[in-house]
Design a protein that fits this description.
It contains 12 helices and 12 strands. By secondary structure, the protein is an alpha/beta fold. The radius of gyration is 20 Å and the shape is globular.
């Protein structure tokens, strides 16, 4: 066992975000979890404590507002709560934003991760799991898949900043003997995702009956991973993984962006009792973004065979669950709009919409 998840004090960076909050909710939903979770989050635009509504009443949970670049505070929290493992979700993650704000991604993803690692040099025995992305490997053609040993060929400032953080984690493990693991996940989706990402963006615009913007011809292909399956995979790594190992996490649910949007329209049309074509006509193809990767796909045999993890959600099932959640939580969407969603949409797609 790498970490006794049920018994330890676990610090989650970026725990108010989409993936981090799902991981926290997942652990707190387990009666066997008798440890403590410290949610360490700076509450930037995508961080939302509403993602953890009710958790504040759980004695196993504590929120600490903090920036991952604040080394003194991070060290204080680690020592005060006798933290034994850190799961590092905190990151700038949106490719479109990275094209316009590259340095903020370098600051958070590269320097922020290095800051945490420097603090951990003073805290021997704390395990560090780094949550990364398949985008560090670059882009694939029509066939093939990435392996844990595939070369890094990032094509966007976002992917490059995550690749940098991966290398730092590995280097600190080798040079300083830190206990580390790394995971690369496919495109996550599910409830609570900020609507700058493709699926929640399309859901919100379906609800509003507004144009559905797709880059190029919508031919880019992605492997879609339901966020709850990602949380389970990280738990499996913490429990059964090995130090210094890298694990690819994917569902094998690969479709083009256009196919995905049509699937969303199908499910939404059925829920609303309306004609598919009423919404399909809203699809708008816009100029492609610079350096847009064509395809991602990962070989996930390592985590499936060694850790006995496998996804529980098929794509269409996960899409339905995600749609249900957004339709049932209009106040959450309003909150996201108040935190800059509309200005982001206007700056990136306004000329076409």
């Amino acid at each position: 066992m790498l970490v006794d998840v049920d018994k330890i004090a676990l610090l989650v960076t970026g725990g108010a975000g989409f993936m981090g909050s799902c991981f926290i909710r997942h652990l707190l939903s387990r009666p066997s979890f008798e440890g403590k979770i410290i949610n360490y989050d700076a509450l930037t635009y995508a961080g939302n404590l509403a993602n953890l509504a009710g958790c504040e009443r759980d004695s196993r949970y504590l929120f600490c507002r903090g920036d991952i670049l604040d080394a003194a505070l991070f060290e204080k929290v680690l020592k005060q709560h006798k933290v034994q493992a850190v799961v590092h979700f905190a990151a700038e993650t949106h490719v479109d934003r990275s094209i316009h704000e590259a340095l903020s991604f370098v600051r958070t993803n590269s320097l922020g991760t290095a800051t945490l690692l420097e603090v951990l040099r003073k805290c021997p025995g704390v395990h560090f799991h780094h949550v990364s992305t398949d985008e560090v490997y670059g882009s694939l053609g029509e066939v093939g898949s990435f392996h844990e040993t595939s070369p890094y060929l990032p094509n966007s400032p976002y992917a490059a900043s995550k690749a940098s953080s991966d290398h730092l984690v590995r280097a600190y493990g080798e040079t300083y003997g830190l206990s580390v693991t790394i995971s690369h996940a496919g495109n996550n989706y599910g409830p609570h995702q900020y609507p700058e990402k493709l699926i929640p963006l399309m859901i919100l615009r379906l609800i509003q009956n507004k144009p559905l913007p797709l880059y190029g011809k919508g031919n880019q292909r992605r492997d879609w991973l339901y966020v709850e399956d990602h949380a389970r995979a990280i738990e499996a790594i913490l429990r059964q993984g090995e130090k210094k190992e890298v694990y690819n996490i994917g569902a094998g649910e690969e479709v083009s962006n256009l196919t995905l949007v049509k699937m969303l329209i199908e499910e939404y049309s059925l829920l609303q009792g309306k004609d598919f074509k009423e919404f399909e006509k809203n699809i708008v193809f816009i100029a492609d973004r610079p350096g847009h990767d064509f395809r991602y796909a990962m070989d996930t045999q390592k985590i499936r065979k060694r850790l006995k993890w496998c996804p529980r959600y098929r794509l269409r099932e996960g899409i339905r669950e995600t749609l249900f959640w957004y339709l049932d939580n209009p106040k959450w969407l309003t909150h996201s709009e108040d935190r800059g969603y509309q200005s982001f949409i206007q700056s990136h797609y306004g000329a076409c919409l």
